[in-house]
Write a structure and sequence with these properties.
Elements lengths: L2 H13 L7 H12 L4 E3 L9 H13 L6 E3 L1 H5 L2
Parallel strand pairs: 1-2
Helix pairs in contact: 1-2, 1-3
């Protein structure tokens, strides 16, 4: 956890359609993004592995100079 993660998480909450209740989820996404992870695996399909919000999250991440990792469930990663 560092200031870059917190700053990105704040922007993800402010500029996307993540709800205020998703603050911890935004931190998870921001940490994976800032630390250049390839994937963020999760069972949270409401706020993280959600195709409806990923485009906006990717756009926000790009604005900060980062590439959003692939956000998916373990089943999606394995092709199941």
């Amino acid at each position: 956890m560092n200031q870059s993660v917190l700053d990105l998480a704040e922007q993800l909450l402010e500029r996307s359609n993540l709800s205020a209740k998703a603050d911890v989820d935004a931190v998870h996404i921001a940490a994976a993004t800032v630390h250049d992870m390839d994937y963020l695996l999760t069972w949270n399909c409401k706020h993280i592995a959600n195709a409806q919000i990923q485009r906006k999250l990717a756009e926000i991440s790009f604005d900060f100079g980062y590439e959003l990792p692939i956000l998916c469930t373990p089943y999606e990663l394995l092709g199941g």
